[in-house]
């Protein structure tokens, strides 16, 4: 049995990176022991000391109970309810975005075992998408990243894709088609019957850290653009400029800091590039006023209109490509009024 604090709660968690123990959080003793600083998550890397509350916040944030449709049914099917300890025991806090996981004293998993069984239950993934199953027993097989996958809209991992419901996420597809034509790095997307398949851009060698966590790493409330300018990563700063321009043109009010991030080397933790643009469920928004949410759940806003007008002069290739976009396929999926608004933004930006 796992070590308990006397209330049936797990008292010690180890943050693992692949097979390396990185940090021990003793909730009962209110203490933190760092084993391997070079593998610390970004949110904890620049803290000295790392307080118990810091470690607990990272664990709690990793397994947020997001109110996505059908997730209550998933909790019941996996026999975890809304108990964080049970979710950790069941999933080991495994994610499709990075190579971290959580271990308690009675676990004997290896990274290879966990990663090989992650999201292998197609039945569970379809259950998370539709709330329906013909094989309830299969819902308990393998390990799932559903407990660490963030966001409001229905989603699950199937094979090498993040899968969403077409009725909720069809606009991902025209956003991808548009971005591809103007030279923006966008997560590859295709329509598949009732679903939208978005190709994963992470793997065992390349991980993703969200902008929200990078803000803790850089100890700032400012946008990460400023920090990459400060540390001399002009390549990533330029990619962020393109991110702003793209999200402005497609009228995306949901470019908050959980919907952007940076790819890094999973072995060295060196920054590689900005992640491809992703999460465009509510793009081409009819009420888009040129701004986006900056932080999920808060009222702060990003002035995408102002930034796009400022940065477009640095990206002549976008200007050139915008003048020859083929909209024939895009118009099939974007309502006429929304398409017209997007065209008006393009025209204004080119003037």
Provide an overview of this structure.
By secondary structure, the chain is of the alpha+beta class. The longest helix has 16 residues, at 234-249. A four-stranded antiparallel beta sheet has the order 3-2-1-4, covered by helices on one side. The protein has a four-stranded antiparallel beta sheet with strand order 5-6-8-7. Helices cover 34% and strands 16% of the residues. It has 14 helices and 13 strands. α10 runs antiparallel to α11 (234-249) and α11 packs across α12.
Name the features.
351 residues, four-stranded antiparallel beta sheet, 14 helices, 13 strands
The value of Rg in angstroms is 21 Å
Uncertain parts: none
Could you tell me the number of beta strands?
Answer: 13
- What would the principal axes of the Cα set say about the shape? globular
What is the averaged pLDDT score? 94
- Biggest β-sheet description: 4 strands, antiparallel
H/E order of the elements?
Answer: EEEHHHHEHHEEHHEEEHHHEEEEHHH
- The neighbouring-strand order within the major sheet is 3-2-1-4
Distance between the terminal alpha carbons, to the nearest Å?
Answer: 67 Å
Structural class: alpha+beta
Oligomer: single chain
How many alpha or pi helices?
A: 14
Approximate strand percentage: 15-25%
List the helices and strands and how they pair.
Blueprint: E1 12-17, E2 20-26, E3 31-34, H1 42-45, H2 52-62, H3 71-77, H4 84-91, E4 100-103, H5 111-117, H6 122-130, E5 155-158, E6 161-165, H7 166-169, H8 172-181, E7 189-192, E8 195-199, E9 206-210, H9 211-218, H10 224-230, H11 234-249, E10 261-265, E11 271-274, E12 292-293, E13 301-302, H12 304-311, H13 316-322, H14 336-350
Antiparallel strand pairs: 1-2, 1-4, 2-3, 5-6, 6-8, 7-8, 9-10, 10-11, 12-13
């Amino acid at each position: 049995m796992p070590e308990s604090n006397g209330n049936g709660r797990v008292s010690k968690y180890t943050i693992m990176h692949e097979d390396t123990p990185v940090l021990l959080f003793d909730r009962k003793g209110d203490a933190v022991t760092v084993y391997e600083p070079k593998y610390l998550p970004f949110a904890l890397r620049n803290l000295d000391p790392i307080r118990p509350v810091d470690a607990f916040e990272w664990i709690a944030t990793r397994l947020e109970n997001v109110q996505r449709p059908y997730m209550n049914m998933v909790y019941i099917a996996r026999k975890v309810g809304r108990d964080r300890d049970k979710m950790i025991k069941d999933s080991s806090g495994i994610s499709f975005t990075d190579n971290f996981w959580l271990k308690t004293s009675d676990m004997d998993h290896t990274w290879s075992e966990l990663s090989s069984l992650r999201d292998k239950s197609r039945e569970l993934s379809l259950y998370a998408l539709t709330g329906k199953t013909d094989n309830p027993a299969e819902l308990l097989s393998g390990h799932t990243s559903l407990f660490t996958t963030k966001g409001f809209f229905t989603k699950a991992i199937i094979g090498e894709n993040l899968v969403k419901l077409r009725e909720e996420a069809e606009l991902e597809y025209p956003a991808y088609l548009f971005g591809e034509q103007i030279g923006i790095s966008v997560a590859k997307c295709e329509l598949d019957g009732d679903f939208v398949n978005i190709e994963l851009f992470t793997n065992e060698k390349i991980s993703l850290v969200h902008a929200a966590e990078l803000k803790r790493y850089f100890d700032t409330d400012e946008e990460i653009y400023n920090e990459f300018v400060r540390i001399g990563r002009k390549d990533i700063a330029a990619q962020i400029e393109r991110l702003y321009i793209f999200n402005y043109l497609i009228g995306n009010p949901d470019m908050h800091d959980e919907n952007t991030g940076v790819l890094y080397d999973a072995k060295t933790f060196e920054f590689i590039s900005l992640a491809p643009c992703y999460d465009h469920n509510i793009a081409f928004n009819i009420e888009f006023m040129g701004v986006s949410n900056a932080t999920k759940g808060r009222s702060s806003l990003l002035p995408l209109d102002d930034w796009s007008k400022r940065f477009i002069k640095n990206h002549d290739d976008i200007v050139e490509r915008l003048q020859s976009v083929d909209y024939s396929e895009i118009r099939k999926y974007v309502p006429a009024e929304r398409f017209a608004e997007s065209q008006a933004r393009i025209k204004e930006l080119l003037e």
